[in-house]
Specification:
Elements (H helix, E strand, L loop, with lengths): L8 E5 L5 H9 L2 E7 L5 H7 L4 E4 L7 H8 L8 E5 L22 H12 L3 E6 L2 H4 L1 H4 L1 H10 L3 E8 L10 E8 L49 H8 L9 H7 L43 H7 L13 H10 L3 H17 L2
Parallel strand pairs: 1-2, 1-4, 2-3, 4-5
Antiparallel strand pairs: 5-7, 6-7
Helix pairs in contact: 1-12
């Protein structure tokens, strides 16, 4: 972690495995606590972010005043950042069962309770673009309107994360609000876009492995198994971005359009979802090897460092943490933009 010191401190709501927390800490912000209702993310969060407390709580049941008891934060603290990166399946454009994610649709409204109660110096929100497309229903319009009425400078946009140091086509809605600075706070873009071969492959320390390989080390280069039929389909898929006509006939219009397709070395990866370990759920096949990308490759494409260990009990649970995470590099840029504006404003 960087040794840079400043007075800024943060609470990370819906922290999951800690992508946002790690990036903010890397920028030099003291993340004093992360909140999540999933006990399975606790070890991953705490062991990779030592000194930051994990609070297991359901935000629907958590009372505003209780957060102060857990963390010692106060109202109207200019140096406080409240971060809300709620699970976003309900607002995603990906066609999933919305019944399963029904409860998550109101998480922004719950986060809003704490923002109004504590009136922090800064507010950060990160979510899927669908949150903005359904601004009335999701509560986003009311959230932004309320911030502006209370004097916050609010910057928000749908960002292409490939322009911010993340080698994916991932698009995310991001909001940064401040009531103590004169300017809107905007994260800094990269000078060039990144591609898959910048991050994975043998030249980046990823040895060749086969489908079904289990890596019991902390590197976690584990790969999901494949049936003989799926191995045959993948073996006939051209390397480096292939997507065969036979596959399209095989799916007959069902499933994900890019199922059983390979990533391209010279392009950004697709959005790393919670199912990135499965070649039937998107363009998640390795550019050359006949397998899906591994847990570690998915985490690396999300910009987690290679020594960031995931401690859930199954590949599926670890992949869910990785896919749901705010890419740490993007989080770092948000944190650095806040720090820069605070310094310039003094």
């Amino acid at each position: 972690m960087t040794e840079k010191k400043n007075k800024l401190k943060a609470i990370d709501f819906f922290c999951s495995g800690g992508g946002m927390t790690y990036g903010m800490r890397k920028a030099g912000i003291d993340v004093i606590a992360g909140i999540d209702n999933d006990p399975d993310v606790k070890d991953t969060y705490e062991k990779n972010n030592p000194g930051t407390n994990f609070i297991q709580a359901d935000v629907f049941e958590l009372k505003e005043i209780d957060l102060s008891k857990y963390t010692g934060i106060n109202k109207n603290d200019d140096n406080l950042i409240l971060i809300g990166c709620s699970p976003c399946q309900y607002w995603s454009i990906i066609q999933t069962d919305k019944k399963k994610s029904q409860k998550s649709k109101d998480l922004l409204k719950e986060f809003h309770r704490f923002v109004k109660f504590y009136n922090p110096g800064f507010v950060v929100v990160e979510n899927v673009p669908g949150l903005e497309r359904k601004a009335e229903e999701s509560g986003l319009k009311d959230f932004i309107d309320n911030l502006e009425k209370r004097g916050y400078k609010v910057y928000w946009d749908v960002h292409k994360l490939n322009e911010y140091g993340v080698p994916q086509t991932r698009k995310r809605f991001s909001l940064i609000a401040s009531r103590i600075t004169e300017n809107k706070i905007i994260p800094e873009k990269s000078t060039h876009n990144l591609i898959v071969k910048d991050f994975i492959g043998e030249h980046n320390g990823f040895p060749k492995v086969q489908a079904g390989f289990k890596d019991n080390s902390k590197f976690q280069h584990s790969v999901a198994g494949l049936s003989e039929e799926n191995l045959e389909i993948l073996s006939k898929t051209p390397k480096n971005g292939g997507n065969t006509v036979k596959q399209r006939k095989y799916f007959k219009g069902k499933g994900f359009r890019d199922s059983y397709s390979r990533m391209s070395w010279d392009k950004p990866a697709p959005t790393i979802t919670t199912k990135f370990f499965s070649i039937s759920n998107g363009r998640f096949a390795h550019p050359e090897e006949n397998r899906a990308i591994s847990l570690r490759e998915g985490a690396t494409l999300q910009t987690f460092p290679k020594d960031y260990v995931f401690y859930a009990k199954s590949m599926q649970a670890n992949a869910r943490m990785i896919g749901n995470a705010v890419p740490p590099e993007f989080a770092r840029r948000i944190g650095e933009a806040i720090i820069k504006e605070v310094k310039n404003g003094k």
